[in-house]
Amino acid sequence: MSILIVDDEKEIADLVEVILKNEGYEVLKFYDSRLAAKEAEKNNDIDLAILDVMMPGIDGFTLCAKIREKYTYPIIMLTARVEDVDKITGLTIGADDYVTKPFNPLELLARVKAQLRRYQQYSVMGQANAEMFEGHGLCINKQEHTVTLFEEPVILTPTEFDILWLLCENAGSVVSSEKIFETVWKEAYLDSNNTVMVHIRRIRDKLKEPARNPKIIKTVWGVGYKVEK
Q1: Between 20 and 30 A from 125 (CA), which of 153, 191, 202, 220?
Q2: Which residues pair with 149 in a beta bridge?
Q3: What's the mean pLDDT in 118-132?
């Protein structure tokens, strides 16, 4: 599998490269974000990207947004800052996860593997006995990992798909933010965590849901989210 690394701090980029190559991954490494943007635009074989947020030329947020215009593979952001606004910004424009510098190399590797597992599952097509949900003009096929709204395709990232499927799988019941986070990210949930909220907002945007009165994904204030049967 091929992983794109973009970080102008050479020591960090080199360290991440060594970690990933030791696990058998193919690595495309760039210190220059502008060169990386050109590679990302033309390379259809990338399976995951690791992007530093603060870079000269094209910052990580901008590069993430450019990738999301064309591709759905997982994106992990590296940030030296710990403010929630940076994390929310990255998630809003399409990142799947973030790691704060300085980081434990084993933690980064675990997050890479988790995102790639989800992406591989997302890419599996055409299996028999597909699990389906249909309602409100929405059709979601778990095995084929396809989503349509009134027969028009909706392009979701693997993380977004997992959240939507979890809600549809539990249609008629409220699913708490804690359960969504721990099921999808497989990590302990923190009360101050805005990750789920940001991803729900992105899914609603792609489903063309009105912000004030969404028809498909309902917010149950103080509890979580719900898709009606």
Answers
A1: 202
A2: 138, 152
A3: 62
Structure tokens at 133: 């949900």
Instruction: Report the Cα–Cα distance between both ends of the chain, in Å, rounded.
Output: 39
Alpha carbons 98 and 51: distance in angstroms, whole number:
9
Q: What's 202's DSSP letter?
A: H
Residues 146, 158: contact at Cβ < 8 Å?
A: no
- List the strands of the sheet with 224-227, edge to edge: 175-176, 224-227, 217-220
CA–CA separation, 226 vs 140, rounded Å? 16
Average pLDDT over residues 52-66: 93
Residue whose structure tokens are 């058998």? 24
Q: What is the phi/psi pair of residue 224, to 5°?
A: 170, -140
Q: Among all chains, which residue has been given the structure tokens 């693997």?
A: 158
Encoded amino acid at 25, one letter: Y
pTM to 2 decimals?
0.69
Looking at residue 19, its pLDDT comes to 94
- Distance, CA of 197 to CA of 178 (rounded, Å): 11
Give the closest residue to 184 by CA, choosing from 216, 222, 150, 156: 156
- 3-class SS string, 35-91: HHHHHHHHCCCCCEEEEECCCCCCCHHHHHHHHHCCCCCCEEEEECCCCHHHHHHHH
DSSP string of 111-176?
Answer: HHHHHHHHHHHHH----SS--EEEETTEEEETTTTEEEETTEE----HHHHHHHHHHHHTTTS-EE
Reading the block at residue 204, the tokens are: 């609603």
Average pLDDT, the chain: 88
Tokens of 160: 């977004």
What is the pLDDT, as a whole number, of residue 128? 43
